Amino acid sequence: MSRFSEVAELLAVCWLAVGGKMKTQMLSPKTTYAAYLVFKLAENSRGLKVPAKASVRFVVESQDGAEDSNDTVHLKLATDRPEHLRGLLRRAARQPNGRLPQKRGDEWMEIELGQFFNDHGDDGEVEMQLKEIQQLNWKTGLIVEGIELRPKE
Asked: Which top-level group of life is the source organism from (predicted)?
């Protein structure tokens, strides 16, 4: 059960792209935040074991235009079924930037997309994105609750 009245479910696509953005003035200044994709996988999920690319961009408006810093990592979404996680762990161990989903206390899963430091709090936006557009296999069964920003401990 979600804390929201509606969630998004991926029915069938070849290209996967999930994203969002937020004004940094809504966040605490002088704080490091991490962005997490909060999701579940339907029983019939398929095609989500391929690496996806995540980015967290802190975009600052300056007199010369927008500047950004980018934290890009390769993620693996997979079911929480043991046979899928075993293979996923072996593949992620071979890739230095591989991140795996973690089960939360509310029965959803989360995976860190990246992190950023909110210096002053009123000088830009943070943009978060998860994308897999390299392998054109069919992807289905991803249920997205949202992208959550939390201060890093």
From this structure: Eukaryota
CA torsion sign for 69, 73, 79, 82 is negative
Q: Which amino acid is at 94?
A: R
DSSP state of 77: -
Per-residue model confidence as pLDDT tens digits over 18-32: 999 999 889 999 999
The CATH number given to 8-151 is 2.60.120
- Domain locations along the chain: 8-151
Tokens standing for 17?
């792209």
The letter for the amino acid at 8 is: A
**8: phi then psi, degrees, rounded to nearest 5:** -100, 135
Coil, helix or strand for 95? coil
Non-local (6+) Cβ contacts of 38 within 8 A are 104, 108, 109, 110, 144, 145, 146, 147, 148
C-alpha to C-alpha distances, 87 to 50, 54, 90, 112, nearest whole angstrom: 12, 21, 5, 20
**Tell me: the pLDDT tens digits for 67-83?**
444 544 445 565 444 44
Asked whether 43 and 141 are in contact (CB, 8 A), the reply is yes
